[in-house]
Design goal:
Blueprint: E1 3-7, H1 13-22, H2 31-40, E2 43-49, E3 52-61, E4 66-74, H3 83-94, E5 100-103, H4 110-115
Parallel strand pairs: 4-5
Antiparallel strand pairs: 1-2, 2-3, 3-4
Helix pairs in contact: 1-2
């Protein structure tokens, strides 16, 4: 396995659908929207095993102070091989001059992000609106 990394915004809908559904994310059912979203993120780092998209990190930023990791995902069969950590390292390097890099993590993901240098906010909670179409 020879993983290569790229900073690109161009993906086929099939590549995106396959990656997102591999981790059972519902956004994988909207690959055309994902392809458009990828073109609009400020930063997209991707991980490849040959021609197979195996992971990505997508970041939104305000151009000077705050960067928000919106997506970090790695195919299940590639997890535990430091691909996610490498993607986060690329994000940290690109945004090293910013005041903060923010991620909203599920509880089970917190140990991973802590190993990458993130800290849990003690006086803040993530909030969502996800069912706008119902």
């Amino acid at each position: 396995m020879n993983i290569t990394y790229s900073e690109t915004h161009d993906f086929s809908v099939e590549e995106l659908q396959s990656l997102f559904l591999s981790v059972e994310w519902s956004s994988g059912h909207f690959p055309e929207k994902l392809a458009i979203a990828m073109r609009h993120f400020q930063t997209v780092f991707s991980a490849w095993d040959g021609d197979l998209l195996v992971g990505m990190a997508c970041v939104m930023d305000d151009s000077i102070m705050n960067a928000y990791v919106h997506y970090l995902l790695v195919r299940p069969e590639y997890q535990g091989k430091n691909i996610g950590k490498e993607l986060i390292e690329k994000v940290k390097e690109k945004y090293k001059e910013y005041l903060r890099i923010v991620v909203v993590a599920y509880n089970k993901e917190i140990p991973f992000y802590e190993r990458c240098g993130f800290e849990t906010a003690q006086e803040a909670s993530p909030m969502f609106i996800t069912d706008l179409w119902t």
